[in-house]
Amino acid sequence: MQEGKDLVESVGNYNIVKCFTQKDLTHRQYGLGSGKVEEIKEFVQKNESDQIIVDEHMTPKQIYNLEKTTGVKVVDRERLILDLFYTRATTSEAKLQIQLAEIKYELPRIRENATLLIGNERPGKGGSGEYIVDVKFRDLKRRMGFIIKKLADARKKRELYHDQRVDNKMPIVSLVGYTSSGKTTLFNLLTLESKEISENLFTTLSTTTRSFIIGGQKLLLTDTVGFIRRLPTYMIDAFKSTLEESLMADMILLLIDSSQSEEEIRIKYNSCMKVLEELNVDKEKIVIIFSKIDIAEFNDIKRIFTGLNMLDPIQISPKTGYGINKLKKLISRKILVKKTPQEMVNVTTALCN
């Protein structure tokens, strides 16, 4: 429920006045049970609320039925996440990725929405004798092809930059983790940047790479979009070009917010690992980082380590600086292992100096 609230509040256009809960959301007509729908309808009419947000996937038919019964607009979880993405996008590539996700959200809904609004009648013809819904469907497919090509071009440029970095023997460290886990805070601390930081979800939607120095060794640090559970497959696909930066990294720091409850930590850790597995990330590159340790319960944290089969994850607090030196030493040690003997001598000399 808290994550649902955070999603709503992060969009910024809503004021939550009441939360309803129901365990079973598989009813065909509304998604919700008919009794719960009547309860919501009564509240909406009494309090003059103008929108219902359902923190779950809903079919066009379920949304249509719920809107018709309650008399107000209904937004499901996927539509809410897309709206949030739109408020966060800053780069041209991030905007393209969101447009692609939007099209993939709309495509399966076009014909069903037309059927619900028109009934069994076909919804009119276009200038060439084609039905309007077919024209719209084909137009979206054309737009999708154009966006995919644009994203492929952006991916080629990124791969070219990556090859140049490899030629320059510059190691890459990537920050990944659940949204709002503290990635950007750590990124700013290590690179001396001032990227926007917020408790809201999805503050970062595009990949940012900057150089930083540890023990005389110059490296590149990448900040990526945060993960979230129950993210539809098509949204993960749309953002793959952003997340692919993680695949190319020499080392991946998976940040976990240790200030949350034991259950939340377990759920978010498993969600992150599932996404990384879907992206075929080499597990040998992953290092678990427990962030915000300054506001965590240490007894609980140790129990979580054992429960998740973690031997000795790094504990840090970017806010106080706790554990940052230990993290830097770990990065240096792991990067040095990958160097050739001659390169190790050169870097070791730099470290000594």
Q: What's the overall average pLDDT, rounded?
A: 80
* N-to-C SSE string, H for helix and E for strand: HHEHEHHHHEHEEHHEHEHEHH
| Uncertain stretches of 5 or more adjacent residues | 120-129, 340-353
Record field, number of beta strands? 8
Q: Please give the largest β-sheet.
A: 6 strands, mixed
* Top-tier CATH class of the largest domain: Alpha Beta
Question: Could you walk me through the main structural features you see in this protein, from its secondary elements to its overall organization?
Answer:
- It is built from 14 helices and 8 strands.
- The protein is α/β, with parallel strands linked by helices and 353 residues long.
- The chain has 3 domains: 2-84, Rossmann fold (3-Layer(aba) Sandwich), CATH 3.40.50; 89-145, no CATH class; 169-352, P-loop containing nucleotide triphosphate hydrolases (Rossmann fold, 3-Layer(aba) Sandwich).
- Strands 4-5-3-6-7-8 form a 6-stranded mixed β-sheet, with helices on both faces. It has a two-stranded parallel sheet with strand order 1-2.
- It is globular.
- The termini are far apart.
- 30% of the residues are buried.
